[in-house]
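Postdoc handover notes: sequence design on the structure in folder B. Input tokens:
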């Protein structure tokens, strides 16, 4: 039985991914800062899938604990999904250094910290898959979310370099770039329905892409072309737009 470690297991997308992997008979390790938030999910998955499900405490904002966290796992994973993220408040981040740092540290620093720990193990074992949830927001900086977008841009570049490095050690790295998604993080936002993914559908797409060893995927497929157009707007024009 293979094992999947889900970092940030309390999010809507992570819960949907956990159901996907449980259905495929994976042993699950669900990691979240407050494990009480995922105990119900773990029990439900165990009953439905008859596969072992374990919950462990993990905090992306405490990189000094990441090596010890990974060393303490009862079984080392075959697949790791880095799902945690924090969109934050752009306007608040422009004036509040604590908000700025939280956005950057959750979405980039914390993710890089734990994935480097895991990459070292996977590299030595010459096996494994790392899946990182980045964002279309990282494809080009926009005034509405450039703090978050810059952190995700860094994470996307990191995953690209990690994929290049670990390919030579038999390890696969997949980057997922969601566009709009109907989750608790986007609650209250007006999102265009045709361009908005639901967590369950997104999890199905991610799992299928994982089985096919895809490198970079967009959710939904049309976001690849939308972001291509956004990236190709000349800077002299783009800076005058309100996005």
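Designed sequence:
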């Amino acid at each position: 039985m293979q094992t999947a470690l889900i970092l940030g297991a309390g999010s809507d997308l992570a819960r949907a991914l956990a159901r996907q992997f449980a259905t495929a008979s994976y042993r699950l390790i669900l990691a979240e800062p407050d494990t009480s938030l995922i105990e119900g999910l773990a029990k439900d998955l165990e009953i439905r899938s008859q596969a072992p499900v374990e919950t462990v405490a993990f905090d992306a904002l405490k990189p000094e604990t990441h090596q010890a966290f990974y060393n303490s796992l009862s079984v080392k994973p075959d697949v790791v999904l880095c799902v945690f993220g924090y969109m934050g408040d752009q306007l608040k981040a422009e004036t509040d250094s604590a908000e700025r740092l939280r956005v950057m540290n959750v979405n980039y620093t914390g993710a890089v910290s734990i994935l480097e720990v895991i990459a070292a193990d996977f590299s030595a074992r010459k096996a494994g898959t790392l899946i990182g949830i980045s964002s279309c927001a990282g494809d080009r900086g926009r005034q509405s979310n450039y703090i978050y977008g810059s952190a995700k841009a860094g994470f996307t570049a990191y995953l690209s370099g990690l994929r290049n490095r670990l390919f030579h050690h038999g390890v696969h790295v997949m980057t997922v770039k969601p566009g709009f998604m109907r989750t608790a993080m986007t609650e209250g936002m007006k999102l265009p329905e045709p361009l908005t993914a639901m967590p369950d559908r997104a999890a199905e797409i991610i799992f299928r892409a994982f089985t096919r060893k895809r490198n970079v995927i967009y959710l939904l497929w049309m976001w690849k072309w939308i972001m291509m157009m956004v990236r190709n707007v000349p800077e002299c024009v783009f800076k005058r737009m309100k996005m």
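Context for whoever picks this up: Strands lie at 3-7, 27-32, 53-57, 79-82, 129-133, 172-178, 180-181, 196-197, 216-219. Don't rerun without checking with the PI first.
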